[in-house]
Amino acid sequence: MAQHTVTTIWKENMQFETDNPSGHKVLIDTSEDNGGNNSGLAPKAMMLSSLAGCSGLDVVSLLKKMRIIVDDFKMDATGELTEEHPKYYHTVTLNYHFTGTNLDEDKITKAVNLSVEKYCGVMEMFRKFADIKTSIHFHKK
To answer: What pTM, to 2 d.p., does this model score?
Structure first.
């Protein structure tokens, strides 16, 4: 069974440095309002980045296999937090945006749906605590 281990080290004030099993590092911090220096990614927002990144990797891989070309692909993820502590995302919206001159909307939609419904492990983890809504937007050049 596969497992991942990360090491997170307190640097100063409210700032931490964490690694990834590949060795890459990122800073975690909080806003000045919460006692930090706003010098790194916020932990909850980083979860949204992980969700988009996981699904995005799936989509790009599937589009390559389908030989579908897009000029640009971006996602925006929005999480709505609960009011009470511990605050967590109870609703998440993930919007997929594709830009190109001749977009194959059916195959792009199929790639997104395969990621959302089958391949993205982070999506599956989010389903344990959040209602996830997705939408696909096509932008013609």
So the answer is: 0.94
